[in-house]
Amino acid sequence: MRRGRWSAVADWLQRHLASRPAAGRRRGAAIALWAALAVLMLLALLRLRNIGGALSEFGTYLGYKFIRRALVVGVLVSLCASLLGVTLVLKRYSMIGDGLSHVGFGALTVAMSLGFVTAEGLPAFLPEGIRGGIAGLCGAISADPLPFTLVVVVLCAFLLLRISERSRMRGDSAIALISTSALAVGVIVTSMTSGMNVDVYNYMFGSILAMSASDVWLSAVLSAVVLVLFVLFYPRIFAVTFDEPFARATGVSAGRYNLLIALLTALTVVVGMRMMGTLLISSLIIFPALSSMRLFSRFLTVTVSSAVISVACFVAGMVLSCVYSLPTGACIVAVNLLVFVVFSAIGAARA
Amino acid sequence: MALIAMKDVTIAFEGVVAVDRVSFEIDPGDYLVIVGENGSGKSTLMRAMLGLVRPRSGKISYGDGLVKNRIGYLPQQTAAQRDFPASVEEVVLSGCVNRMGRRFFYNRADRRKAEANMALLDISALRRKSYRNLSGGQQQRALLARALCATDALLLLDEPVTGLDPVAAKEFYDVIRDLNQRHGVAVVMVSHDLSGAMRDAGKVLQMDRGMDFFGSVPDFEARLAERAVERRG
To answer: What is the distance between the alpha carbons of residues B96 and B134, in angstroms, rounded to a whole number?
Structure first.
């Protein structure tokens, strides 16, 4: 009874204190702010050069094989990241991509530094054959660090999920813990071996030159897997995202879907991080979903629009980066930010 | 044959007993309210009925055509849900996941079921509306329609009127009574709101780790009055 009376009082207060004019002013201010930001960013963009010229210039860039590769891999990775991003953002797991990319950085640098291991440098009590084997393995890993990185990041995704499900530590603390530790290991190993060189710099901020033919295949397979699984399990993914306890109670094995999403995220992050950079790859996961949620209010439309926004922003960012020789990853994030601001303005105006 | 029979069910977390040797049955058409203070184990008991926590000892059996995954559950809302971008139709339809079996997508029967439950709860007009723009009472109706998609026999409601204003709470109780009396759905409700919840209920279970009381509403009220007299005297 007591509670009933109090909530009636609260209702009355809300009706009379938060009167409409104040709400209207706040809305107007929000629209003005977002719109001003959008106009400023558009002006900055146009200030660079005329767009027609930029596009024709990009046409000549398309003649280069590495640009075409980067375009294919990027489009596919953006597509995967945006689909996974919708459920990650809604499940309050936005930072998992960031955490995993730091792990990826640590693993890459460790893999690279394994190239410095020689058979003579290993402890003498080991037999000659084993020393040779270890040195050979290390050499192979440092020559092609991708499989090693993939395994480490997938294991960490698994670990993160286990920690946040089974222990008292919250998910975000677990992510912060693992990502900073991995970064620390990476930095220490780097300074002990090669030092901060161009390779390490490229891992952090991304490089468009990093994509090889095997990356194209890997990303094609990955995106096919993500697309097929996402479409087939769409109703169940919605159920688990919207309400995990309900989904579990009705017999959906939510744990398995969480694991699947984490594994696919790990793969997406590893494939995309060398182009986007460790520090920026998580933006591919969160930005499209957040922008879509500003405008759309159905799960299906949010999902479809995230995919479209993500691919469009990637292409636009890549054109910018080629034409004005700016870092690719940063350009893509900037375009995503612009879309977010524009969508926020429209969303505020419509509300 | 009971829908759910609990026999000497004990649940413990990290060595601490949360529910201690509880035995009772829920029959078709029952309306049971579970009351108790915070930490008395009432929500844990409900999660055990749903198969979300495993009892340390004792037995939970399902009967009378009820399958474990065919229970309609109305969980407490989370903060993440309140601004979730989904239409009412999408939310209600997601109650049909337990009918899909090996299928990947919803079929026509699922959609018809969702349609019927939206009509039953008077939210058909809101079907294209976004869940996050609904009032608290409308959100609860949408979640209730989803729960009805998952079951024909038994609804488990966890603190369903928390956060609703008095008018919406009364409407919600009326909807539940209607489902129980006219459609024969058995209802189990965990609640803090003693007076409201007991108005339409048939049985009461008071939890205090163990079973403090299990019986009809008049008996429970008589016991409450007795205790009040004792305290005063």
So the answer is: 22
Number of domains present in the structure of chain B = 1
Q: Say which CATH number the domain at A108 has.
A: 1.10.3470.10
* Residue A351 C-alpha, separation from nearest chain B C-alpha, in angstroms: 10
Reduced to 3 states (helix: H, G, I; strand: E, B; else coil), residue B173 is helix
Q: Mean pLDDT over residues B194-222, rounded?
A: 88
Element at B4 (helix H, strand E): strand B4-13
- Partner A contacted by B221 (CB < 8 A): no
Residue B59 is assigned to a structural domain of this protein: yes
How far is it, in rounded angstroms, from Cα B97 to Cα B114? 11
- pLDDT for residue B74 is more than 90: yes
Smallest CA-to-CA distance from A276 within A211, A196, A198, A184 is with A211
Helix (H, G, I), strand (E, B) or coil at B176: helix
Assess if residue B64 is contained within a domain.
yes
- In a mutagenesis test of the B interface, which of A87, A246, A302 is the best target, namely the one with the most B β-carbons within 10 Å? A246
Model-wide pTM > 0.90 = no
Interchain CB contact of B152 with A (< 8 Å): no
The confidence score (pLDDT) of residue B76 equals 86
Note whether A11 contacts B: Cβ–Cβ < 8 A. yes
Is residue B153 domain-resident? no
With beta carbons less than 8 A apart as the criterion, state whether A69 and A215 touch. Answer: yes
Q: What is the pLDDT of residue A76?
A: 93
**Average model confidence (pLDDT) across chain A:** 83
> Which bin fits B213, alpha (ψ -120 to 50), beta or left (φ > 0)?
beta
Q: Please report whether residue A91 resides in a domain.
A: yes
B36/A contact by beta carbon, under 8 A: no
Is A149 inside a domain boundary?
Answer: yes
CATH number reported for the structural domain that contains residue B193 in this entry: 3.40.50.300
Q: pLDDT digit string (tens) for A276-326?
A: 888 888 899 999 999 999 999 999 999 999 999 999 999 999 988 888 888
pLDDT at residue A1, rounded to an integer: 43
Cα gap B121→A69, rounded to integer Å: 54
Q: Is residue A167 part of a domain?
A: yes
Q: Which residue numbers in chain A have pLDDT < 50?
A: 1-2, 19
Q: Which domain holds residue B66?
A: 1-71+186-233
What is the chain A residue with the closest CA to B105?
A235
The number of distinct structural domains making up chain A is 1
Residue B228 has what DSSP assignment?
A: H
Does the residue B193 lie in any domain?
yes
For residue A36, is it within any domain? yes
Q: What is the pLDDT of residue A24?
A: 65
